[in-house]
Amino acid sequence: MPEQLTLYRHKIELGLIEANAPYKTYQVDLSNKPEWFVSKVNPVGQVPAVTYGGPDVNPEDPSPLSAKIAESNVILEFVADLYPDSGLLPKDPVQRANVHFFVNAATKHVEEPYYAFLRGLGPYENILKGIEFVQGLLEDGRDFAVGDHYTIADACITPHLAKLKIVTETDLGKFPVGMGYKLGEELKGPKFAKFMKYAERMLERPSMKQINDEESVITYFRTIFAERTQ
Asked: Residue 1 has what pLDDT?
């Protein structure tokens, strides 16, 4: 899937920004993957992927001395481990377990049905069911997914909240015309009020505002979803 559509890298950037970690980015054209990326960084050829350690080199010539790590949720936890004082992963083992549970739940119940709907492969009702499940994990009176601090649980779900907002406001996707708007109307109801307030807080967070280029995503969606099902 094109990088512009997945935006899984945004999970990583959120974690890095929240941890105040120095980093460099390099955009990979997934429709024309460079040979060095597959042979030296990620044999699967997917993004995001990171190199860590080793000498400071040109991104197009990764050092064999650096570690290569792939999969967005794996990288998120790696960043949290590198910067333990960031609070991205709680020190309390119960809270850490809760963070991991939320990450898995967000992936299974929100991310997967969202992409199925976007591609026209599943109904929007599956997203609502998933959101209802995840909403049940949010504690009353808390600003974040788990506990009183921003964690990788929040970083994991926030980019998908941004794309969900785009779909419900623009109706762009391979699903039948009008279903995006209908999903948005459903989410405005009192049944999902807690989840939507949480989503609003996450989207207004400075780290998300720093990386979220909504107009570029909308432009890209208009290009790839030009042909619609009536």
From this structure: 36
Question: Residue 109 burial (CB < 10 Å; 0-12/13-18/19+)?
Answer: buried
Whether the CB-CB separation of 138 and 198 falls below 8 Å is answered with yes
Give CA separation, 92 vs 18, 38, 95, 98, 99, in Å.
19, 38, 5, 10, 11
Count the alpha carbons within 13 Å of 219 in the hemisphere toward its beta carbon.
4
Of 201, 202, 194, nearest in space to 156 by CA: 202
pLDDT at 59 over 60: yes
Show the tokens assigned to 136.
């049940």
> At 30, which amino acid appears?
L
Other C-beta atoms within 10 Å of 167: how many?
Answer: 23
pLDDT of residue 7: 59
Kindly list the distances between the CA atom of residue 121 and the CA atoms of 112, 117, 126, 173, 175, in Å, as whole numbers in the listed order.
Answer: 11, 6, 11, 11, 8
Residue 112's φ and ψ, nearest 5 degrees, are: -65, -50
Q: Say which amino acid occupies 84.
A: P
Q: Look at residue 107 and give its three-state secondary structure.
A: helix
Paired strand residues for 69? 50
pLDDT at 107: 94
Strands (E), 46-157: 49-52, 67-70
- β-strand 67-70 against 49-52: which pairing, if any? antiparallel
The model carries a pTM of: 0.90
